[in-house]
Write a structure and sequence with these properties.
Strand content: 25-35%
Distance between the termini: 22 Å
Strand order of the largest sheet: 4-7-6-5-8-9-11-10
Largest sheet: 8 strands, mixed
Number of strands: 11
Structural class: alpha/beta
Length: 266
């Protein structure tokens, strides 16, 4: 996938060890193979995105295969539509889902995430694909570059996703349902507030083709109990008492509940 300079929006050309635009803005290619296209003025903190600890926890958890049903659902939905073109994973994390999808469809993949640590791990494990540190609000690729944009448990920026998708391309969005990980929540919180069911948002410039519920149970033990917490937003909200209760939990059986929404670009 062609890249744009995040500073001046000019095309980037790959040179030995870097990407460079005609205005001589240069971006080094890291040893693992990714490139950082996140300028300072697009950061919201010194080290945006998931931390090294969170990324490591998610990698270990996902490598355990507990969330494989989500990957299978994505592959089935893409095959049913004979997806063509390049895959763009926005908020790719360590690349677990999109690398499987790209391999299954034999399609090129570009993944981006605001967390440099996440992209570093993706590039280190999944060779042959393009990995970027960048923001979903300013995706550094030309208009109409992708045949499929995917965003799993991540930020949705409809206008920007519409821009980078080719006409007739698809957007796969996965969002957690209100009853996602109730087992974990019941341990770490004194009281679990029941939320209304997830509403599928209307996205300007897109037609919703299908919603696919994804719901399955799994059991984690030992370190994986902690990893499950660390890869969720609850990591930032947990109290000392809740952390202690989870630390004293040797195993946990829980239910993952989310929904895949398939949008087609008008």
């Amino acid at each position: 996938m062609n890249l744009l300079c995040p500073i001046c929006a000019s095309p980037l050309s790959r040179e030995t060890g870097c990407w460079r635009c005609p205005n001589q803005h240069s971006f080094d290619i890291a040893r693992q193979g990714y490139v950082n296209l996140l300028p300072v003025n697009q950061k919201h903190s010194l080290h945006p995105g998931d931390t090294q600890l969170q990324v490591a926890a998610r990698r270990e958890f996902l490598d355990g295969g507990f969330y494989q049903p989500i990957a299978r659902t994505l592959i089935e939905a893409a095959r049913a539509r004979s997806i063509q073109g390049e895959i763009l994973d926005v908020g790719c994390g360590e690349g677990y889902y999109s690398a499987q999808l790209a391999q299954a469809l034999n399609l090129p993949l570009t993944g981006l995430d605001i967390s440099k640590e996440a992209v570093r791990r993706a590039a280190g494990k999944y060779k042959g694909y393009q990995w970027l540190c960048a923001t979903a609000s300013h995706i550094p690729v030309p208009d109409g570059s992708a045949g499929l944009v995917m965003s799993l448990f991540a930020l949705t920026v409809p206008q920007e996703f519409h821009r980078v998708l080719a006409p007739g391309g698809y957007f796969f969005q996965v969002l957690a349902e209100s009853d996602h990980l109730l087992g974990l929540k019941s341990i770490i919180y004194d009281q679990v507030t029941e939320k209304a069911p997830q509403e599928i948002p209307e996205l300007p410039g897109f037609t919703l083709e299908e919603t696919v519920p994804v719901r399955f149970s799994f059991t984690v033990e030992g370190r994986q109990v902690h990893n499950l917490l660390a890869m969720t937003p609850h990591w930032f909200r947990i109290s000392k008492e809740g952390a202690k209760r989870l630390e004293e939990t040797p195993s946990l059986t829980d239910t993952a509940s989310c929904v895949l929404s398939v949008f087609r670009r008008d």
